[in-house]
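>> Question from a student workshop board

For tomorrow's exercise we were told to take the sequence and the ligand below, predict the bound structure, and bring the output to class. My setup keeps failing. Could a helper post the expected result so I can at least see what it should look like? The ligand is NAP.
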Amino acid sequence: MSSTWHILGAGSLGSLWACRLARAGKAVRLILRDDERVAAYEAAGGLTLIEQDQAHTHAIPAQTATGAGPIHRLLVACKAYDAHKAVAPLLPRLAPNAELILLQNGLGSQDEVAALVPHARCIFASSTEGAFRQADWQVVFAGHGFNWLGDPARPSTPGWLDELEDAGIPHQWTPDILTRLWRKLALNCAINPLTVLHECRNGGLSEHHCEVATLCVELAELLRRCGQPQAADGLAEEVERVIQATAANYSSMYQDVRQGRRTEIHYLLGHACRIAARHGCELPHLERLHRRLVEYLNAHGLPSD
Ligand code: NAP
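>> Workshop helper replied:
Here is what the output should look like for this input. Compare the format with yours to find the bug.
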């Protein structure tokens, strides 16, 4: 069954998905924060996707959560800390067999959303695509990547994967989505907080090799303790490879802090520390890193949850 793609949040990733689906002729509708955002969006005349210096504007219809009509398919494209709060007002509109696709980085927000919508299907995504907002309603497609999709509760593939194919959204369905999300979370925990604390590019971490290696040992132990041994395999080597391959880049957490934006710490390092505590697993270096990051964020006037 083909149905409308409702996209909650027209930020970087939400706009990237919305524009590609719309240009492939799929029915797309944006759900924005409030009437003021809808008015600002309509005044701009649509969403603009900038790809290889070419800009194309797509006049995708937009509404707020209180708009009319049932929602069968919802792409949740908010930050992890906003996801469940943004989904809550949509509950009366969700069809009984609704499917939600959750694009959030890290772990924990997916469960918060799933708890709100026990009758809907929640599909988790892990994306390595890169996009950023150049201005409101203008998104730059900055890095080609891939999207892994999966449902830890049900292995059957959804009926709309061919629509992603039509839209040129690179993807694969995987039964191991939790392993992928845990691996990405572990890579993030080993790199991003240290780039914030040492105020450096990813490559700067080659000067802190021992600190990174110690964190990798603890992260691998955590992954094994929480039933993700595959995510632990070769973690330290991959972390080193990522540091080398992205040496000139600033991590997403570093960029958030520099720009005074709230980070997703609660769903990344914070989640790792909470799960470790739940398993009675003592990880002193990871916990110390978390405390240092919280202190750093507080000292810079940023939320640490
Ligand atoms: P973003 O650019 O900040 O976009 C988030 C959007 O959510 C904003 O447009 C915001 O609206 C909207 N929003 C928040 N609360 C809302 C509500 N109640 N109703 C409607 N809209 C609401 O974030 P992003 O970079 O796309 O990231 C989204 C997720 O994808 C994050 O978990 C991130 O880690 C992950 N991710 C991002 C990338 C990337 O390259 N950007 C890559 C991989 C993964 P306003 O515009 O009104 O503030």
